[in-house]
Amino acid sequence: MAISGYLSEFSLPEIFRLLEQGNKTGRLSIQERSQNPSYPGKIFRIWFKQGYIIAAGDRIDGHGLLSMIQQRGWVSSRFASRITELCAIDQPAGLYLKKQGLLESEQLKLMFSQQVLQQVCKLFELQDGQFQFEAKVVAPITELTGLKAPPSEVTLAGLRALKDWTMLLDKLPEASSGVVSTITGKPQLRLNQLESQVWEFTNGDVSIQHIAKQLKLPLNKLQQVAFRLMTVGLVEEVPFIDVAVPPRKQELEMSMLSSSVSSNSSAPSNAFLQSLLGHLKSKANA
């Protein structure tokens, strides 16, 4: 399977979710948009295995991880240069170094965090770029720690740190919408305090605008939190119907509407249909 396109059309969180849900294995390449037409933008590569992120880097030679380890003085450059000769076939370099007693488990976790979480999270700041996913492309063992992370966790980390939401504004849920849980029980993902607070309102009976007021947060901040939960598949946006109207008033309005429809059935019906179609089209284009 080969997928390609532009981040302006298909956001990085959406790409990650597609690859995670499809349990895809391969390499996702992202080329940032260059300000100089004479020079191509930098290319960043992320490797997936069965839907998990297993490595990332921007070096063509595939020695990004080893370079990080050498900079910390944990292995010599001479030893690092022989890793491909010493490792068994398909054995991650990180696990080999651990087996040799050169790295501890905590050091491997630190390297994976620096290699994947820190570097990939920066990609969420890209204003535009081109992406391509190539299935079955195997990651070089020199970039592998032996660890992995769900793209949904990386997405949450990246969006939490994102400061400029310009590229995602048209994907944020509407202030008048509600959010409904798409899972049974509590989320398995680790949510921060604010995300957990918003999660408590995922029954669809309160609009995003009202949630923001109750939590005393700016509306755009609340929309961003809701989008994070939507992107990792925990909630979905739904039209919100205000149920706060008194029952007697509702009955009176329904009676008046029925009477109006009976006396002039075409006009109210057409207006209602046009309004509904307009709403659905706006949601489809969002």
Provide keyphrases for this structure.
286 residues, two-stranded antiparallel ribbon, 7 strands, elongated, five-stranded antiparallel β-sheet, 12 helices, 45% helix, alpha+beta
Quick overview:
With 286 residues, this protein is α+β, with helices and mostly antiparallel strands. The chain has helices at residues 12-21, 64-71, 77-80, 83-86, 93-99, 105-123, 151-161, 193-199, 208-215, 219-231, 247-263, 266-285, and strands spanning 2-6, 26-32, 43-49, 52-57, 129-135, 177-181, 235-239.
Ranges where pLDDT stays below 50 over 5 or more residues in a row are 260-269
**Count of extended strands:** 7
Strand order of the largest sheet: 1-5-2-3-4
Percentage of residues assigned to helices: 40-55%
Overall structural class, as computed from helix and strand content, comes to alpha+beta
Helix/strand order, N-terminal first: EHEEEHHHHHEHEHHHEHH
Q: What share of residues are in beta strands?
A: 5-15%
What would the principal axes of the Cα set say about the shape?
elongated
What Rg is obtained from the alpha carbons, in whole angstroms?
25 Å
Mean pLDDT over all positions: 85
User: What is the count of helical runs?
Assistant: 12
First and last CA, distance:
26 Å
Main β-sheet: number of strands, strand sense, barrel status?
A: 5 strands, antiparallel
Note down, in words, how this protein is organized.
The chain has 286 residues and is of the alpha+beta class. Helices cover 45% and strands 15% of the residues. The protein is built from twelve helices and seven strands. It has helices at 12-21, 64-71, 77-80, 83-86, 93-99, 105-123, 151-161, 193-199, 208-215, 219-231, 247-263, 266-285; strands spanning 2-6, 26-32, 43-49, 52-57, 129-135, 177-181, 235-239. Strands 1-5-2-3-4 form a five-stranded antiparallel sheet. A two-stranded antiparallel sheet has the order 6-7. Strand 3 (43-49) and strand 4 (52-57) form a beta hairpin. Helix 7 (151-161) packs antiparallel against helix 10 and helix 8 packs across helix 10 (219-231). The model is unreliable at 260-269 (pLDDT under 50).
